[in-house]
Automatic annotation (TrEMBL):
Alphabetical list of Pfam families matching this protein: GerE, Response_reg
Domain (Response regulatory): residue spans on this chain: 2-118
Keywords: DNA-binding, Phosphoprotein, Transcription, Transcription regulation
SMART domains hit by this protein: HTH_LUXR, REC
4-aspartylphosphate carried by residues: 53
Keyword Transcription set for record: yes
Protein name as annotated: Response regulator transcription factor
Amino acid sequence: MRILLADDHALVRRGVRLILDREPDLEVVAEAGDGAEAIEAARSQEIDLAVLDIAMPRLTGLQATRELVALKPGLRILMLTMHDNEQYLFQALKAGACGYVLKSVADRDLVAACRAAMRNEPFLYPGAVTALIRNYLERVRHGEEDPDQFLTPREEEVLKLVAEGHSSKEIAEILFISVKTVHRHRANLLHKLGLHDRLELTRYAIRAGLIEP
């Protein structure tokens, strides 16, 4: 299995690579320091599995997952994270990841997760399974809808940049759009999510896994 490994910390990548490369059926063929680099690597190399950190600059692991799923529908994706966080878990699965592995137990779980991906099987640590069941039951009980599913990729990009503290002018320059378009996206975000200001957008972006607390 040819693996792409993406994490913004070189030391973490080195450690994870050591875990994977000692297995005869696993090989890290590409590394990336953020989500955007991961997408470029996936375009230029043949890979079977992407192992992505959730919190990365430019594009998060969650955003990269959505783009990779669209780019290479057969690609399997594992999220490797320090966050034992239900919201991150739900976002990862919704984005298209087939597994969720905690860095704290990567030496125990990561190889098993990779092999599960090879078999086209999901991999979740026990606490994640419990969280999924509890969340599902609560949602059924309350009849709730998740507003995330209604955000467009562009709205999500704007949300991440707003939450990171960029001005409308800076966001326009980063995304190559007009300031007026930024204002429109921001207004749409506030309306769709039922929020009122930048602070509430920032809190929402943290819960959605777009930025770190």
